[in-house]
Design brief:
The protein is α+β, with helices and mostly antiparallel strands and 96 residues long. The protein has a single domain (11-92), classed as 2-Layer Sandwich (Alpha-Beta Plaits), CATH 3.30.70.100. It has helices at 17-32, 61-68, 71-79; strands spanning 4-12, 37-44, 51-58, 84-92. Strands 2-3-1-4 form a four-stranded antiparallel beta sheet.
Length: 96
């Protein structure tokens, strides 16, 4: 199977940007240490600081699914409940 790329868009409620950013940063070291994680990079939009993007690459769909079921993702989800305006996750395959 080819490498799986994830583009995850997280838009925080305007009143919770700092808290959401802090919770997202907590995910980085734990996720990067996971088996199957190639990279896990967090970005923040310059014009809209409430918009965060994770650019991720995984060795397989199974590695991603293990990540999504992890304790640190569950903790993050509980911590930011009600603070997220929108979340989208796109599974991408590199073609060129």
């Amino acid at each position: 199977m080819t490498q799986l790329t994830i583009i995850a868009n997280i838009i925080a409620q305007d009143t919770h940007v700092a808290m959401v950013k802090s919770e997202l940063i907590k995910l980085i070291d734990k996720t990067r240490a996971e088996q199957g994680c190639i990279n896990y990079d967090l970005h923040q939009e310059q014009q809209n600081p409430a918009h965060f993007v994770f650019y991720e690459n995984w060795h397989s769909e199974a590695a991603l699914e293990t990540h999504l079921a992890s304790e640190h993702i569950a903790n993050y989800s509980a911590a930011v409940e009600g603070a997220i305006k929108s979340f989208t996750m796109n599974r991408m395959t590199q073609i060129a």
